[in-house]
Design brief:
- The chain is an alpha/beta fold.
- It has a single domain, classed as Aldolase class I (TIM Barrel, Alpha-Beta Barrel).
- Helix content is 39%, strand content 16%.
- The protein contains twelve helices and twelve strands.
- The strands form two sheets. Strands 3, 4, 5, 6, 7, 8, 9, 10, 11 and 12 form a ten-stranded parallel beta sheet that branches.
- Helix 1 crosses helix 8, helix 3 runs parallel beside helix 4 (123-134) and helix 9 (253-266) packs parallel to helix 10 (283-291).
- Bound molecules: S-adenosylmethionine, 6-(5-methyl-2-OXO-imidazolidin-4-yl)-hexanoic acid and iron/sulfur cluster (SF4).
- 6-(5-methyl-2-OXO-imidazolidin-4-yl)-hexanoic acid binds at residues 58, 74, 110, 112, 143, 164, 166, 203, 233, 235, 238, 275-276, 303-306.
- The site of S-adenosylmethionine (SAM) has 18 residues, from loops.
Length: 332
């Protein structure tokens, strides 16, 4: 395989491990669209089978009533979104749902809880969920809010493969979206997860009223982490009525595709996930995202609380585009 860790930008060479300058990333993001997609696709092909897409499945193990005020979220107790809160699910039910997802072709199971951070009394149950899902032969992922080093250590000991913790947007724009925690808090948990030896899944949301420079700054922050994330979910805001961002102006689809391409170029080895918001995208837009380097999706009718295209639609999309699910051994 050709070495895609080197990207030529107007004669300059950025080698793997070097930190990205915002201005270089900005030049790439603003290339003519065809040039940008060609570069992204070239890098993608050098690292991955271009027609294989990794399939993840989400489950909300604890829904709603969250003390955080994330302006986009259906689960925040700060907004009248009409969502019914529920308690932590039983371990057996979680494992049974994971088995169904595996039988439907998913290789990674991601369990999410609407917590600011887990309480120590919840840790035994989430550890048992990780062990139960792993025993099905699936990759495990959890997203439970902020983690202390000790909590990250317990999850690592249980064999958790990935921890999802999004930085959501640029450092500049973060405080416009969330006031109950800071961008620095997010980075601290990412450090705790990485130090515990768990693989990192970190990305963000587009379409919250941010600028294109915020897209670029967010991706530069992720790419410049001491070790870049192994998974980078890029969500398109699903506007939730009643939340702070219920009426946000949607992102221009072309800007969304540009952000996917930049993620692929800045983080050649990562699985770039076309995450929330696919019900609001045409097949053609999703096809452009795959061409730009997205190679992972969430499958199934629901994400955590919001709708997702569902199996039949995705099977038809994969047939139209000649895509195939990525096998687990290739997904590692
Ligand atoms: N409570 C945990 C946390 O905040 O890290 C985990 C669950 S939280 C729902 C996971 C991620 O989903 C958020 O960081 C955000 O990026 C994404 N998300 C939540 N609501 C969304 C929405 N309405 N549209 C798009 N993405 C959303
Ligand atoms: C991520 O970046 N997207 C997923 C996952 N990580 C946990 C969550 C999407 C949530 C969409 C809104 C909902 O279902 O409530
Ligand atoms: Fe809570 Fe996570 Fe939703 Fe924020 S994104 S309100 S932390 S569930």
């Amino acid at each position: 395989m050709e070495d895609a860790s080197v990207f030529k930008l107007e004669g300059e060479i950025v080698a793997e491990g070097a930190l990205w300058e915002f201005s270089d990333a900005q030049k790439i993001y603003n290339l003519p669209f065809n040039d940008l997609l060609f570069q992204a696709q070239t890098i993608h092909r050098a690292q991955f089978d271009p027609n294989a897409v990794q399939l993840s499945r989400l489950l909300s193990i604890k829904t709603g009533g969250c003390p955080e005020d994330c302006g986009y979220c259906s689960q925040s107790a700060h907004y009248p979104t009409g969502l019914k809160a529920s308690k932590l699910m039983e371990i057996e039910k979680v494992v049974a749902e994971a088995r169904k997802a595996r039988d439907g072709g998913a290789t990674r199971y991601c369990m999410g809880a609407a917590w600011r951070s887990p309480k120590d009394r919840d840790m035994d149950a989430v550890v048992a969920m990780v062990e139960g899902v792993r025993s099905l032969g699936m990759e495990t992922c959890m997203t439970l809010g902020m983690l202390s080093p000790a909590q990250a250590g317990r999850l690592a000991d249980a064999g958790l493969d990935y921890y999802n913790h999004n930085i959501d947007t640029s450092e500049r724009f973060y405080r416009e979206i969330i006031s109950t925690r800071s961008f620095a808090d997010r980075l601290e948990t990412l450090t705790n997860v990485r130090d515990a030896g768990i693989k990192v899944c970190a990305g963000g949301i587009l379409g919250m009223g941010e600028t294109t420079d915020d897209h670029i700054a967010m991706l530069v922050t992720l790419a410049n982490l001491p070790v870049p994330p192994e998974s980078v979910p890029i969500n398109m805001l699903i506007p939730i009525p009643g939340s702070k961002l219920g009426d946000a102006t949607p992102t221009d689809p072309i800007e969304f595709v540009r952000a996917i391409a930049l993620a692929r170029i800045l983080m050649p080895k990562a699985h770039v996930r076309l995450s929330a918001g696919r019900t609001g995208m045409s097949d053609e837009m999703q096809a452009l995202c795959f061409f730009a380097g997205a190679n992972s999706i969430f499958v199934g009718d629901t994400l955590l609380t919001a709708d997702n295209p569902g199996e039949d639609h995705d099977a038809a999309l994969f047939r139209r585009l000649g895509l195939k699910p990525m096998a687990l051994d290739a997904a590692e």
